Amino acid sequence: MTRQSSYQRGFVSNPIRTRHGIAFKIRYRVRTAAGGWKQRSETLYNVTGKKAAREVLDRRIGDSTSTKLEANDLTLRDFVESYWASSLDRKGLKASTSEPYDSALKRHILPIFGDYRIRDVAPMHIETFTQAKSQDGLSARTVRNLLLVLQGIFSLAVDNDLIVKSPIRKSRKPVYRRREKPIWSPTQVLAIIQAAPESYRAFFCCAGLTGLRPWGTTGSAMEAY
Q1: SS3 call for 82
Q2: pTM given for the model
């Protein structure tokens, strides 16, 4: 696929008669922060003719190419795919850690916030999201973990000057109390080993004597996914 050239002439319409007088429509493209193109259009009044409208258009094109990429239309999905995901890769996260993040994004976050412009997400949206997930039956711990993922995304957006302040507030996070995991007595461990099928008995004996935990129960903040 060939990359679209940044050169553009834009478009100037013929004179348009309106209730406010003669006008001209102009169209031109600007780069977005995600690297794509966005078309802009304006209706110009009080210009002396098509040549004057073309001069205005040329100035708009010059301004758009001399300034930094605009981030006004960067959606949360674009930001996650273009920037946040790569930031996780730079941290060298293990698959067992990054996979829960992906699951949280695909199942809960992007279906709600994916098409929002990242600068438009407000604290009230986060509050509505938190309440909805709680009403859906998710535990306080799971909802809190979802907010931690969102907090990481918006913190990176703040670091890159895309937004001034994160919409995540500490008071939004549900409180959960960590429960102590039950500890089996030696008698109970022995009973489990004796009840295990003979072909698996060595495995149960090893797990019981060493305290090994199965994969996925490491106590990670994202283990709910």
Answers
A1: helix
A2: 0.51
**Given this structure, which CATH class describes domain 76-172?**
mainly alpha
Contact 222, 97 (CB under 8 A): yes
Tell me the residue length of the chain. Answer: 225
User: What ranges do the domains of the chain cover?
Assistant: 11-66, 76-172, 180-225
With beta carbons less than 8 A apart as the criterion, state whether 73 and 117 touch.
Answer: yes
- pLDDT (mean) for 14-37: 81
Residue 79 · residue 162 · CB < 8 Å? yes
64, pLDDT greater than 60:
yes
**Separation in Å, CA 195 to CA 114, 153, 206:** 50, 48, 15
Angle at 72 between CA 70 and CA 73, to 5 degrees: 105
pLDDT, residue 72, reads 61
